[in-house]
Specification:
The longest helix is centred in the first third of the chain and has 34 residues. Strands 1-8-7-4-5 form a five-stranded antiparallel β-sheet, with no helix packed on it. The chain has a four-stranded antiparallel β-sheet with strand order 9-10-14-13, with no helix packed on it. A hairpin with a 4-residue loop joins strand 2 and strand 3. The protein is α+β, with helices and mostly antiparallel strands.
Length: about 425
C-alpha cells in the first residue's frame, strides 16, 4: 500500500508540474501575442551602388527612439521620419534620434525612417510596416475629457477582427513616462473591450500618445496608435455663478458670470461665451433672436420687457488666441428672470367674485323669507298677465337683478382697480 501511495503521489506531482509548465507557456504566448507589434522589425533597403556603412537600425517603441550602428565614425547625421505628406526631422546624439510626442507621427499607417550623412550622399532607408491581419485594428477611435479630470475613450472593433479578439488601451503624456494601461474598460455585448474610462486625468503636456493593440487565438491583430493634443478634446463645464440683475426704470438687465472650470489654469481672455435668451412661453425651435457671442464676463440685455418672463442659458468655448478647445461646452442650468405671474392675486379675485355672488344670493333669500316686498315696493296696477306670472315673482326678480348689478358695479369700479394699484409692477426670479 505504501508503494502504491508513493507512486500515486509521484504521478500527481508530475501532473502538477506539467500543468504549471503549460500555464507558464500559455502566459508567455499570451504576452507575446499581446505585445508582438511593439517588437516589429524595420524593413531596410540597401542602395544599389554600394553597401551603406549605416547598419542595425532599431526602433525603440517605448522611448520613441531610433538607433543605428555605423562602420565609420561620421561627425554628423540627419534623422527624419516620413508618413505620407508629413515629415519630421529630429536632432541626433550618439547615433540616436529621439522623437518627442509633440513631433512624432502615428506608426500604424506605416513610417519611413531615413538616416543620412550631410555632404556625403550616404542614406539609409527603413520602413516600418505594421504586422497582422488587415482590417483587424480598431476603428473610429476618439477621446473626450469632461468634468475637469475624467476622460472617456471609445472605438469600434476592426471589420475583419475575429470574434475572440480582445483589445487593450495604453497611453502616456510624455516620452519619459511608461505607458499606462486602462483600468476600467467599457465592454460590448460579447465582452470585447470597446472603450475605456480614466479618472484623475491631468493635462501635463499638450500632446498624449495612445496605443490600442489586440490579441486573438486565430490570427495576429494589428495595432492602432495616435497622438492627440489633450486641450482639443477637453469639453468645458458650464460657466460659473451666472446671475441676472434687472431694473424697472432703465428697462434692461445686466448678466454676469465667471469662466468654467478647467483641468489646468487658463487665462480669462481665452474664452468666449454664447448667450441664449428666449421668452418663457416661447419654444426653443420658435425662437426668433439668434444667440449672442461675447468675449467678456458681462452682457447687457436691452430688449427686456417688464411684462414678460425670460429663460437664460450660457456656454463657453476657447478662443483661437489660446491653446484651448474651440468646441462649445456644456450649457448652464436655465435661469428664469422677469415678471412672474402672481397666481395669488388671480385666485383672490376669483374668491372675491364668488363671494360677492354668494352674498347677493343670501341677501335675496333673506329678504324673501323675512321681508314683505309689498311694503317696500307697493304694487302698481298692471294689466292681466297673459302668461300667468304672479306680481310678487316679478318684483323679486327685479330686486335680484338690481342687487346683482350694484354688487358687480361696486366690485369692478372700486375694488378691482384698488387691488391692481397695490400690486407689485414686476418681480425677478433667479
Amino acid at each position: 500500500m505504501e508503494v502504491l501511495s508513493a507512486q500515486a503521489s509521484l504521478s500527481l506531482s508530475r501532473e502538477g508540474k506539467m500543468f504549471d509548465t503549460l500555464g507558464l507557456i500559455c502566459m508567455i504566448w499570451w504576452c507575446m501575442t499581446l505585445f508582438h507589434p511593439l517588437h516589429a522589425d524595420l524593413q531596410c533597403m540597401e542602395p544599389e551602388t554600394q553597401e551603406s556603412p549605416i547598419t542595425s537600425m532599431t526602433w525603440n517603441w517605448g522611448r520613441m527612439e531610433l538607433s543605428w550602428e555605423s562602420s565609420k565614425n561620421f561627425p554628423h547625421y540627419i534623422c527624419t521620419m516620413t508618413s505620407g505628406d508629413e515629415r519630421r526631422r529630429m536632432p541626433v546624439e550618439n547615433r540616436k534620434c529621439r522623437f518627442s510626442i509633440e513631433d512624432s507621427l502615428p506608426l500604424h499607417r506605416g513610417i519611413n525612417f531615413t538616416i543620412g550623412v550631410p555632404d556625403m550622399n550616404i542614406l539609409k532607408h527603413c520602413q516600418f510596416i505594421p504586422e497582422g491581419m488587415k482590417g483587424s485594428a480598431i476603428e473610429n477611435f476618439s477621446c473626450v475629457i469632461y468634468n475637469v479630470s475624467l476622460m472617456n475613450c471609445t472605438w469600434q472593433p476592426g471589420r475583419n477582427a475575429p470574434e475572440d479578439t480582445q483589445y487593450f488601451l495604453y497611453w502616456k503624456n510624455s516620452s519619459d513616462e511608461n505607458k499606462t494601461e486602462c483600468e476600467l474598460y467599457i465592454k460590448g455585448e460579447n465582452g470585447m473591450h470597446i472603450g475605456c474610462r480614466f479618472q484623475n486625468v491631468m493635462i501635463k503636456d499638450e500632446t498624449a500618445y495612445f496605443l490600442v493593440n489586440g490579441s486573438s487565438k486565430d490570427s495576429q491583430i494589428q495595432f492602432y496608435d495616435d497622438y492627440i493634443k489633450l486641450y482639443t478634446i477637453e469639453r468645458f463645464t458650464a460657466p460659473l455663478n451666472v446671475s441676472v440683475n434687472c431694473t424697472s426704470d432703465l428697462e434692461d438687465c445686466i448678466i454676469t458670470w465667471q469662466k468654467p472650470l478647467t483641468s489646468y489654469w487658463k487665462s480669462e481672455h481665452c474664452f468666449e461665451y454664447e448667450i441664449n435668451i428666449r421668452k418663457k412661453d416661447e419654444l426653443e425651435k420658435d425662437k426668433k433672436d439668434p444667440p449672442v457671442t461675447v468675449d467678456k464676463y458681462t452682457y447687457e440685455f436691452k430688449n427686456y420687457n417688464v411684462k414678460k418672463q425670460y429663460v437664460l442659458k450660457i456656454r463657453a468655448r476657447g478662443r483661437s488666441v489660446c491653446s484651448v478647445n474651440r468646441s462649445w461646452g456644456e450649457w448652464s442650468e436655465p435661469i428664469e428672470f422677469g415678471q412672474e405671474k402672481d397666481y395669488f392675486i388671480v385666485v383672490l379675485l376669483l374668491l372675491i367674485v364668488l363671494g360677492t355672488i354668494l352674498v347677493t344670493l343670501l341677501l335675496f333669500f333673506l329678504c324673501k323669507r323675512y321681508c314683505s316686498f309689498k311694503r317696500i315696493f307697493p304694487p302698481i296696477p298692471q294689466p292681466r298677465d297673459k302668461f300667468n306670472i304672479s306680481h310678487n315673482e316679478n318684483i323679486q326678480v327685479c330686486f335680484l337683478i338690481y342687487l346683482v348689478k350694484f354688487a358687480f358695479i361696486y366690485f369692478f369700479a372700486y375694488l378691482l382697480p384698488t387691488m391692481f394699484q397695490q400690486a407689485t409692477p414686476f418681480s425677478i426670479k433667479l
